[in-house]
Protein 1
Amino acid sequence: MLRRSLALDKAQGAERLSRTCVWRLREAPQQRTDAPKAGDRGPGLTLQWRMARTILARRGRLNSERRRGCVLHRVIPLLLLLTGATGLLYEVVLSRLLALHLGSSGSSQAMMLATFLGGMAAGAWLVEKPLRKLVIALPRPLVGYAVLEGFIGAWALALPTVSYYAFDLFTEVTKDLPTGGVAATAAKLTLAAALALPLTTAMGATLPVLAAGVQRLAPAHGVQLVSRYYVLNALGAAIGAAVTGFVLIEELGIVQPLYLGAVVNGAVAAVAWLVSLRAPAPQFQSESQAQPESQAQPESQAQPESQAQPESQAQPESQAQPESQAQLEPQPLTEPLSVPETGLQRGRPAVTPDLLDIDDNRDPKLASTTGDTPKSLVLAAFATGLVSLCAEVLWTRIAALALGSSVYSFALMLTVAIAGISLGSWLSARAVRHRDPQWVLAISQAAAATATALLILRLDGLPQELAQIRLAIHAHPDNYPAWLWRGNLYLAAHLLPAAMALGASFPALLASAQARGAAMDRATARILAANTLGNLCGALGGGFILMPALGIEGSLLVTFVISLAVALLVLPRPWQGHQLLPVAAVGLVLTPLLLVASPDGFVLTRGLFRLRDTKPEDVGKFVQARRKQIQVLFRRDGKDATITVDKFPTGFLNFRTNGKSDGGTGTDVITQVMLGQLGLVHRPAATKAFTIGLGTGMTAAALASHSKVSVHVVELSPSVLEIAPIFVNFNGKIWEHPRVHITIADAREVLRTLPDGELDIVVSEPSNPWVVGVADLFTADSFQRISRKLKPNGVLVQWLQHYELSEHVLRAIFCTLHGTFTHVKVYRMSSGDLALLASNASLDLDFAAAAQALADPGVVAHRTLLARADLPASLVQVLVGQLCGDKTLRRMCRDFDQPLLELHPKVEYLAPRDFFAQTSARNLSGRLDTRRSDDPLAVADTDLVRYLHQWPLDDQIREQLHTYLIEVNHPFDTSLTSATSADGKLPKTLRAKLQQLPELASASIAQKAITCALLRKEATWLMDSPYTVLGPASRDPLVMAWVQACEAAP
């Protein structure tokens, strides 16, 4: 303190002594009569003038340090915050763009991950190895960073155009290649690498390039600065993930965000370039020239002051540097100069030469470290990267099971994971300033293991508590943001601690490497490369190996063990050796205990996010009751989804994907079988059918039951194929059928390899549109892709539901389909399900051929196997399910001009809101039902009307139809059920209430009011549609008279 005070007093005294002279040097050099002349070494060169020139040099040096401090503490952090956001924007958007052409199968996802993470690792490795000399030879460090960001922006700007031609070329090259073959896989990898690898490689090189610059600008504080940059870059990434996933794609689509990111990167490059021109250029000192501390001249051998060059031997004035040059190239300082505190520097020491200048040798150990990063730290970086991405894969699946597999669940997980990394890095960067970085690293990994263990133990309680939070919020579209905030924050609270602990590794690893003699820039590049390579292995290993083999709980246990092992590996040396044995023994004991105590996954896979008519406090009772009733026959945590099959006491089987029911042996049988039969009823001569989705196998079995039809089934999840034997009594061993071929792949991949105009029938049987990735199958792009593969008279049979869907979305899907295909029909399936038939050729039925198709021996045998009375057994029973045709849809879509597109996904963002609010488009489906109205024969848009003109119903067929409609028990069919009853009466539930109807003519006003109120409440269907294509809803004249009277009443 005394030495620093004396130095400060000396500097201030010199400044006061020559203040006047400084003014004279600056303001009036022409008036200096006593200034030394050229060649004059005499008394003209006074002490005052020398001190004045020194102070001017120091002030120029001070301005240089101020600019350098502004660059390090203000400019670079802001730029990294922005580029972190654009980096995640590119990752999210480009993965979506590639999935549209490569498919979303496991192999395609692996290739995209390899391209992204492999490119990032390659960028860091290139800076650390081949390009290191080029990077450190740059005269200004920010120039390299500006070039990289400019390249990233330019590539993102060109990407939409480049990808358009690349995808066309890819389609042309791979159209004849078998799906999943070596050639097709190589082509996909080449395409992904060509589009994404340049971008991701440049992104991976940015931070190592900056680290190389910081190594020259501030070697003594490089760890703190680079750690701070990493924190801000990760924070920007979290912001980018949230904004892109929740806002940008919904509002701008997939392509427009690329342009936005390109503009931001271009601006960052321009700012970095301008700053690099204005900021002072550091003096370069190669590693070979850096003098290690051990070789530095000891203080005792320094030249004594008495041996210093006398003033008389000073350099001649003619050889001295000009004053302007002295200001541009200031001499080293020996005393600190205070700098006014700035907003970003509060809480930090003022900018001083020892903080910012590489020529300052106060800490030669940090300034001259040139060694390699220890292998143990590189291994730890790889392991922490592996655990991070493996955990993120597992967390994403947990979120899908607890919240539902919507696009918001995936956006949440990406945001939480990166936000945790940012926050953990920030805490770690602060901790390593005052603690041994190896202890910080060890404690952080132990904390990650602890957080993982706690998460395993919470897998039963978490879904129940989330269901309670959701049930406590009124199901209305306006309340959906409240559910997103509450549910997502509650889940994030369980996952954020582990993410923070894993994110704390980078600053601790970097500080540990430098403390052990590694050059900071090389350590940054090597640690980043190892960590990113670990990310790649974790993403692939977690999704493709660990989860399918060990399940979610077992995979989490593996990450627990790895984190604990890393904590032991990086402990400081005094704790290594035999002293590790007690700690390792504790880990060995905890692992089997945790395995025994982990939940069985029953609650996690129940799909409690669909729980509706239950009070929040009764969720636990519901789960207990289900646990007693349900027997889980199958569970597989596959790489694409978690598949389960449940069996109820009644024998009912239910197939679930990520907790959501996607098929069963209840009323779903009608939908699954009729999706296969409808296409062949309209195209009896068909021979080639293509099915998107296997499910329980009933749809494929219905198609294959026709003796001349070969069926190609494409299923995304291999686990679904494993459950087919469980439904053997319903699909008839479809996996062994000689005319059925099953491919595990994405339908896009397979359709691309088929020749145009090859298929007779395509059946699309996906999940609900609110499930992520499914909405793409309801876009104009998907319909056009299928249309090209169909023959001129081919038919698409598209499944769709009207529950948990708004009228706006349902109408958009209807009209998008009708905009692609000229002819469309709508059939009702089981309650809530619809089947849309679409073709570019007429869909008018050949009744004789259709009846013959239904009488095929294979069809009869399959119907007998199912033994269901609610399945159509005759053509008239099939036709009675048609709601409308072209004429009705043409009227509804007259003013529709916004078809659904893959590049602008709307449905996958709107449908989750409809799902939460329990919205139903049943009223729109009801308005499309032309079978019932005031004058059905005039407005009916169904084949049933034409059929009845040719073959009127006799009493026997009418009775059979009536029995069938009773078994189906569809709410749209109530009027038709009543119209086909033998006695012409209303259904039994209503008949008892109306059997004492008073005579209309003698009824009083009060009786009329009571009777009309009863009809409107108990027989809404009768009041809304008293007439059907099969006749009046009731043959009782008194009932129909009352209906007409009540319709006329106010």
Protein 2
Amino acid sequence: FFKRLNKLTICFRTSTVAIKRRSRVPGVMITQFVEEVPEGMSTPDFTRKPIALTIQEGKLAFFKSMVSGVPKPNITWARNKGPLEDPVKYISRYDETMEEYFLEIPNVRAEQADTYKCFAANEYGRAVCTATLNVIEGPKRAAPEDFRKMVVRTKPQLKKKEGEIDPKFWEVLLSSPKKDYEKVCMEYGVSDFRWMLKQLNLKKKEREEEQAKVVEKLENLKHIEVKRDGSAEFELDMELKNPNSQVFLFKDGVMVPYSDDGSGKHNLNKIGKKYIFSINDLMPDDAGLYQVDVEDANCFSTDFKIIPVEFVVKIQEVKAKEREDAMFECVLSHPFQKIVWTGKKIPLEQGDKFDITVSEDHLIHSLKVKDCAQLDKGVYTAMAGITSCNAWLIVEADNDPNMRGGKASRKTTTAGGGGENLAKIAAEQSAKLQKEKDDLDAARRAQSEKDAADAARRAQAEKDAADAARRNCEGVWLKDGQLLTNEDGLKIIQDGASHKLVIENCKKDDAGVYSFEVDGHKSEAKFTVSDPPTFNMDSLREFSKPVIVRACETAEWKLAFSGGDPMKIKWIKEDEELLEGLNVKIEQTDIKAGLCITDCQRRNCGEIKINIKNDYGTLEATSRLIVLDKPTPPQRPVEIVETSLTAIEFKWKPPKDDGGCPVKHYILERQQVGGSKTWTNVGELPNDPLKYRDTNVKPGKRYCYHIRAKNEEGVSNALETEDIQAGILCYPGPPSAPKVVSAFKDCINLVWSPPINTGGTETWGYNLERRKKGSNFWSPANLDGPIKDTTFALKDVTEGAAYEFRVSAINISGVGEPSPPSVIVFARDPKMRPQFTGKMKSFMVVRKGNTVRFNINFEASPLPDIYWLKDCVPLSKRVTITNSDRGSQLLIPTSERSDTGIFTIIVKNMVGQETFSVEIRVTDDPKPPGPVELEQNVPGTVTVTWTPSPDEKKDDRLHYVVYKRDSVKRTWRMVADSLFNHKFTVINILPGREYNFRVFAKNDMGLSEPAVSPTWKTTRRKGHITEKYVKGLDLQCPPSFLLRLKICTAPPGYECYMSCAVRGDPKPHVTWYHNNVSLNTNTNYLITNVCGVCTMLILKIGPKDSGEYSVIADSPLGRAECSTKLTVRGSISQSQHNKMLFFCDRNNLQFKHQV
């Protein structure tokens, strides 16, 4: 019943067909979209496919292909790992002369190595092939010397001045996160945080503007810190706008070179967008301000400070015994918050193994190694800044003879450590540092006191000199050479050496040259009384209001002012001076100025200024002139939005000048060209939107329109449009003949192409018509309205009937010419091999007497024949079979144990067949086993025996479960399960306790009632034990099987256990074989070996698992082997199928065996 379809796979869906086949060209797969390709047409295929390519990096790579197919296929390219949308990296072109398609990859790179695909597709199918591109590394070219790198660049460094903040403070602060601001301020002695934040925001804004020129993104700035390997590192994440921009490293304003391979003093390691700068072999002169610049923009600054710390007391060698603690201690010359400890070049951290402590003065640092072992010995190092010291830890083995073969106990003693001596040295060092600090503070105070005393002496000397001058100075005041006295309305005031002349209520007569003479010395100055121009405030308020006039009217301005002569007055309009002329009149007096503009026009609108100037100042006032007039005509061009059979729509632009007030309406008039000469008023349109749709038009006629703008001052001149023609009747052409995509008994799916000639307008939809074979009458198929798409699923069909279809397009003019008729298609399902649908059980357990009902769902076309078998033979009359188009049901109204078996369904039609088997087991609650007897054959054990359950012969899956309860725990505990015999030996039976046992029979339905044993009790005997000398025995023996494998028969779909017992010393290696093939590495088999009991579990039995199984035990003393056979029940061999003949119709089944 089985047919193998080589090189052809047919997939049926609800609306499409996909037939896959291979091309004659190797490596090309073709997918056909339709069931039958029309005559003269063909699916795409490759006559030359792209070949795999291996090319050097930087060269031009290209793939070339040639295709065939009618209509001409469309070629597209793709790759597995990304798109091909970049037109610079991937160029797709077609050579019309050679009819070849190319995909070019100029300047190929390593990341473009991939598998590329070429697709050729038309409406009947698609072909695809692949080609691999391998990119190998090109020869490395020596980079040309960059002489700019040979020039040592420097940056100007501001030096710290007395009493000012160190300039380094701002550089470090600009590169620090907000959480570190307080720390940086404390380090540089800045306490005014509000002032600092204000200045920082200004500097940060300037710095970001510089960085924005060269850097796209800057983040994750980490300041310099000393690493455990003795180097210093700082890093930042930076994305450059130009990848070729140069990155410079400066130290204290001087550029330092760096290497990329980590071999230099200063190095740069770049990982993606992360830049990591490192400094190796640290020295004291490596301290300073490090800055990273991109071109001329500073991006990062960090201050590297090296504390001049030294080891006053270095760590010493420590000898410790196993399980004892070891202590390393050192004393530093300056306080250090945390030093780095390493053991055998591995960093050490606080934890269960190591205890790191620091004294309160941060001078004594200690490391305790807890519970020393031989693995802990080695060199330990203490690193403080760039200074380090090291010492050995020697771990001595514990030679206590009493602990031989065991683990020594934990010791509470500690080896090493300086104790009180280190504390004394640290105290002396702390006192020394405090004394140095006190001496420095005292020197600063002394210097401050000295500077204050010097300043006081200088101030006293200056005061004494001033007092002496004040006592001896007498002088006179003069105006234009005339002596002045207090009687002239002036005040002359003398206060020691200070002389003042006060003039109250200045007048113009007070102007002149004033001088002061004393002891032959003279000083003079010129005094002028100014009178700048000023405006009268009421007059200025009126002048500032805008002057609004209508066209051809007169505008006037007047403004009163005052001020000293001479006065110069200018009138200015839009930055140009107004001069008196035909339309401009200017009036001017000593206290008033006026301007008059006659016959005002829209061009006169604008700002009017008056500028008044004299020798003492300038004054300016501003007003505005607004002239109202009717608007100008709307602006050209008039844009035509739509011209159709029923409407003309156009829009226009507003007037360039609205006349000083907004346009409220537009007035439209229309005239038919070639008809009446009169203009018809269309009406007034609102200001928004500026478009009009005229629906009162006749097809093919031309129209002209007048458009006028209207505001409060009047109506503009007309804008006349060009002639606009309404649409003409133009029906669409015929679409292509409908193509049948797929056909079923209740649905036919059609597709067609739009018409080439659309009639110049948009296609609104399509009408589909049909007729039966042999008929001349076409009936509409789309009763719900025009079809909007070029596909349609027709469901109103008669099963088995033959149809033809045609389609016509619809536009604004109407329905166009119909297409040619389609090929004749039958409304029936496509041929389909039977296949089962839904989830199905392969095993069922049913209680005796209950109904057995098993449903099978399938799909097949044409309708299949259905056969049911039980254990490879036809069903009895007790079984009822009900078949339908999509399923079959097996029913046994009242089940018996004899109904147990493997039921097989065979679904077959002309395309193929499918089978499925289910095991149905009819059983009942098991009956309990017979009386239970107890017997002791070995001390400490009890052998439990019982009479088998009456159901054992009826149910091959029935087994036994044994439970135990003693007088101490008083709970039932299972001691054995899955027993297929009638005896079990219970171990660990203790004297003096009472034991009870229960035996249950168990099958697929559950447990039976228990069979209860009599109480078992043994008395505890007291006696003396005499130790006897036992002569040593040689227990070595070759492998041998205590329990061999048994022959197994199992139904398919079940689990299968195989077990055996093997002995041997030394322990033998056990290997399982199936038909002489090793199973030890096969994951489908679960193999265990516990204390010589070897078991193998087959999770799900199938026909392929039948055969010979063997176990081989190997050891150096010999080899043992045992084997068995596994038979799988219910499997139908091919030879048995060939000997069976089936005669059936839809409802009956006859079985006949061929002799």
